[in-house]
Amino acid sequence: MRRWLGGLLVAALIVIAILPVAQTIVQALVGQDHVLEEFCRAVATPRVLGLFTHSLLIGVGVSLCCLAIGVPVGFLICRTDMYLRRAAQYAALLPLAIPPYIAAIAWIKVLAPQIYGPAGVVGVLSLSYLPFVSLLTVAGLTSFDRSLEEQAELAVGPWKAIGAITLPLIAPFVFAGALFVFVFSVSNYGVPALLRVPTYPIEIFTHYSAFYDHRVASLMALPLLLVTAAAVGLSYAMMRNRRYVSVSGTGQGGGRILPLGRYRGAGSAFAWLVIAVSGLIPLGVLVMASGSALAYWVALKASWAAIVRSLGISAVSAAGCLGLGFGLALLIERARWQGQRLLDVATVLPLAVPATVLGIGLIELWNRPGTSWVYAGMPILVIGMMARFLPFSVRILASSFKQTDRHLEEAAALTGAGGPAIARRILLPLMSPGIVASASICFIFSMAEIDTTLLVMPAGSETLASKIYTLMHYDVGPFTVALCVMLIALSMIPVGILGCLAATGRSR
């Protein structure tokens, strides 16, 4: 890759994802006297410390639940002969298309008023974030050297070999998934707000958007940023030089399928119960609550502008993440230069930035006379979504590079093929599953994004997700529920594409 192009890619990463966070830190610490005293007044109070502890406990609780449920589900759909295993591999992806705040609406319809409270928040977030642990469990099962497990099977049998060899080998993947879940849970704004649970992110959001106390909000953001950065840093250390995903399909290459024997019914029932509760039941509840087709027609007529705007913003965000992510992954995995490790770390750091912190940084960075065209229009939404979801694109594409044989590129180079020709004729065809997966994940998450959007959304730039969230606080009637179903349906298109890719990967 040409040096100037690599420099341009790094500069884009800095502007989109690094500078907003740096701006938040500068806003909090620089140019003010008595910073420590202000920080103590803002944060070191019993109420605020209680909210901070409350948020941490929610994050820990959700992570433990996802570990307890997500690991067995990932193992069952990847390595056992459970009933309807292929269908389960597709259905397990459904929670990715249901935003947590929409899942909360479904469970409010079923369990209100019992769901209001911390236990409800932990339950909803656990069901929503299960795929992060189960998919990373599958990635671990499809990545390690099978010969070690095969040798242990000859000595102690297949199931004891799993406990002695397989689980320790996939532990970094499992705990990395749990750390990601912790980061997303501890900084989630939408679900606690809907379930009437005060948390630290809600407090930051209130100080910024309701009290207009930007200084205090920036100071309060720092402890949350430190906690999430530590979790992401630990996850990065666990996953360094490992593949975050297997883009050839959820059941591909994970070792021989183990018979469950007399426990086949129980194991299958457990996996399908989890899949039903996390995805199928919430979707079914929403479809029934939406009433007749009239609700969808009214919702479409009243919200077509927001729908089109969301599709456009999400498509541009996904395309931007794909293009920038491909270039950055290429720099990390293929280029040879001294800054590779630093760039690798830099592409992971945005995962550590809570959505509210990112929103504050984006406003402080772009709300200036010379950049008002960015702040006052849809570009600020695209930048915000790219900043949040670019790390997913880079990780998926870096995993794709790891699964591509470098000898093919070297052989093509020996024949005189240049970089663009090698990319077009070798890399792009071989990496097509990862490319589609990257674009799909970024599109799905962008369609559902609400936490940053609520802070930075300009007047007249309402998205489908923000409209749904606004309507939730007035009336969750058929009109609002119909919009939720429409958002899920639009998000499920990429999920279907991912399922087709998985089937294609298995048939090769």
Total beta strand runs: 0
Mean pLDDT score, rounded?
Answer: 85
* Rg on CA atoms, Å: 23 Å
Which structural class should the secondary elements be placed in?
Answer: mainly alpha
Largest sheet: none
Quick one: overall form?
globular
Query: How much helicity do the residues have?
Result: over 70%
Low-confidence stretches: 247-253
Q: How many H/I helical runs?
A: 23
Percent of residues in β-strands: under 5%
Order of secondary-structure elements: HHHHHHHHHHHHHHHHHHHHHHH
Question: Ends: how far apart?
Answer: 31 Å
Task: Report on this structure.
By secondary structure, the chain is mostly helical. It is built from 23 helices and no strands. Helix 13 packs across helix 23. It is globular and about 65 Å long.
